[in-house]
Write a structure and sequence with these properties.
The protein is mostly helical. 66% of the residues lie in helices and 8% in strands. It has six helices and three strands, in the order H-H-E-H-H-E-E-H-H.
């Protein structure tokens, strides 16, 4: 049973489930020297149509600028991301994946995919669709 942190046990169970999924994936990624936070940053940079400013990355990821900087510093130190001068703003840098960053991104995405498939294997196709429908209904009422 979920630890009650809200006035609604359903919300507590949703939180406990998503938190458990994150920890499950985090453990799989950690075995390969990655993390959910690093994967999210790599994913945002890989999916972007052009190099991103640090501010763009933090906005897309929904994290504080300081957190984004810390993650990017780590990725840059590991040779996965590089900072390049912004062509129109001398004070600004753009972020882009290095070839090694692209490789690590693909590898981390596969680990994530396999971990989530394992975590949700108990649900059949109909149950997955039903859960998605219910979650979408909650999202519609909260946006």
């Amino acid at each position: 049973m979920a630890v009650q942190g809200s006035s609604d046990i359903l919300i507590d169970e949703l939180y406990e489930t998503t938190n458990g999924l994150r920890q499950f994936v985090e453990a799989r990624l950690r075995e390969k020297g990655a993390s959910v936070a690093r994967l999210r940053a790599l994913r945002m940079l890989a999916r972007a149509e052009r190099p991103l400013r640090m501010r763009d990355l933090s906005d897309l990821a929904g994290i504080a600028a300081r957190t984004a900087t810390s993650i990017v510093d780590s990725l840059e130190r590991d040779g996965l991301v590089e900072r390049v001068r912004h062509p129109h703003d001398r004070r600004s840098f753009l972020l882009r994946l290095t070839p090694e960053g692209e490789r690590c991104h693909r590898e981390a995405e596969e680990i994530d995919r396999l971990a989530l498939a394992e975590a949700t294997a108990a649900l059949d196709t109909q149950e997955r669709e039903q859960l998605r429908t219910l979650l979408a209904r909650i999202r519609r009422h909260t946006t």
